[in-house]
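Appendix B. Raw example, untouched.
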Amino acid sequence: MPPVAEALRTEESAEDVEARRQAALERRAERAALKQKLAPQTVTHHVPDEDKDCPACGGTADRPVGDGKKTELYEYIPGYFARQQHVQDKLACRCGGYIATAPPPRRVIEGGKYGPGFIAHIVVMKCADSLPLYRLAKQYERIGIPMARSTLNDLFHLAARKLEPLYKRLLWHIAQAELVQADETPMKMQEPDKRGYVWTFVAERLIAYRFSASRSGQTPVDVLGGTTGTLVVDAYTGYNRVASVDGRNRAGCLAHVRRKFFDSLATAPDEARRALDLILAVYRVEHEARARGIVRTGEHLALRQSVARAAMVRFRAFLDEEHPRHPPKSPIGTALSYALNQWDTLTPFLDDVKIPLDNNASERALRVVALGRKNFLFVGDPEHGENLAGLYSLVSTCDANDVDPIAYLKDVLIRVDEHPASQIDDLLPHRWIAPVTWTVES
């Protein structure tokens, strides 16, 4: 199914084209700024002696001309890992009765020989880049770090246990949010024919995951039970226990409705295309709001209540007219029934500008889980699944807040044990402040 943005692009006005051009310029500027994060290196290429002989006069070319011809080249230098030898100074008093020793290097685990940056690299490679640990072990071996996969596995779960207080606090913050989006996806477990589920809960730029051995509604209750606000989800009944009279208001997903009509194009092209056009009219309002820079403002709400509401009225009239005409088990009949059954959850966005039209944000958050599921296939048991979910949460929230996850984890793995519990929010990705860096003697 083509994304909404692609479908809208065919109807762009001159103003839309200009807005898209400006957005492209802004992205180009952002990429130019990103280059500044990469420390430049200067590599000088000297003129070979045999090329210095001047064919015109027989002399020698030895006078510099300007700063030289410059060319930019991106190059890969093997990953920078170091086998550090830490030396603690010892100073003795002249009286002979006292010796002072410099403090030892800070470690994630007492007596461990792997530094916090090394452990952070392991976590990010698996949770951000979906790299199985056995492949990571091969990479380490190629650059001179012989390491068993079991050691990598132990370090990964050690990090999860260390950072569990941060993960739980992140979940708490999401539960307090007025608007939460949620979704779930299966993941195999090591035991044959057994699978668990990874759930995601998204609130603004906070992303958290939970692992459970089943798809029951207990997980949403554990995370969101007793809270109020709005919950944006699909039609799955597992969320019913928290989207009730005493809980959160439920908002549905227009993208799910659109997908079902797209799937019925082959069997009922005229009706399906009409439905897709009506849904696109609603998304056109959001496109206009973004182009005008009025998202979540009073003007945006006015657009929704006038233009979008009228589009939804036309869509409802279409559903009521077409529903009796099609077999309920047919693709178009299924799509019509789904839209009608979910109608009450599809309209709250008309009165609250903060509610999105769809649940795409939580679906995007599950992409990293889906990629990991393809690469490392399964989790060992529910405890390991929960460890994976916790580290997924911290790494994904780093990405959502433009925080370098390796720098973040390297810092908090050391600080979390000593940090005051009353100030633990300072160590969450969206509030973390990078420490002053230090240099290492070569």
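End of appendix B.
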